[in-house]
Specification:
Radius of gyration: 26 Å
Strand order of the largest sheet: 3-5-4
Strand content: 5-15%
Structural class: mainly alpha
Distance between the termini: 36 Å
Largest sheet: 3 strands, antiparallel
Number of strands: 5
Number of helices: 7
Helix content: 40-55%
């Protein structure tokens, strides 16, 4: 009885066997493989709207991270008493600001490149069921993720062109995806795609 919850047993010795998708039991033929549950998930190219929503979510997450850092940075800057006739160096003022900007930039780089390396997506992309992959639908390494982020930042001024490429292109790849040889795929329910 298929739904009785009874264990599958070996045809030769009668020992209880665990069931895993794709596992064939002794005595089973390929025709029994059709009885296994079929995944209802499939991948399609990630479209413009899910990518845009993911970017907005990631920007809000980074804002939540950056605001306390900037507040702490501003709180530690106290007015400096300057003696009469002496002026505070412009270089001193800029060096503090520059180190803050570099810190925030490094956090942003590792947020994106680290997320793409570890989870194949940023938290915003995970929310939208998007994944950043290579041509074989495998995850990308850190160097490729870093290269992809640098290209993304470099081509930020060409964002409308990238948006058009994602919206109208067959593979829905932005400029930074083309140059980094990456793909953004969306994991969707097979039944939902059939309804479209």
């Amino acid at each position: 009885w298929a739904n009785s919850g009874a264990m599958v047993r070996c045809a030769k010795c009668g020992q209880a066997l665990g069931e895993r998708p794709g596992m064939m039991v002794a005595g089973q033929t390929q025709s029994h493989k059709a009885d296994l549950p079929v995944s209802t998930k499939m991948a399609k190219p990630g479209g413009l709207l899910p990518r845009l929503i993911a970017l907005i979510v990631d920007s809000l997450i980074l804002l939540v991270i950056f605001l306390p850092i900037m507040a702490l940075w501003a709180a530690q800057l106290r007015p400096v008493k300057v003696e009469a006739g002496a002026s505070r160096s412009v270089l001193d003022t800029l060096s503090g600001s520059l180190s803050l900007q570099l810190t925030l930039l490094l956090l942003q780089v590792f947020y994106f490149a680290g997320s793409w390396t570890i989870m194949a997506a940023t938290p915003g992309q995970l929310l939208m069921s998007l994944r950043v992959t290579d041509a074989n639908a495998a995850g990308i390494g850190f160097l490729r993720a870093l290269f992809r982020y640098l290209l993304f930042a470099l081509f930020l001024v060409l964002a409308p062109v990238s948006a058009l490429a994602v919206a109208l292109g067959k593979q829905k790849r932005a400029l930074h995806d083309l140059l980094a040889q990456t793909y953004v795929i969306q994991i969707v329910d097979r039944d939902a795609v059939a309804l479209e």
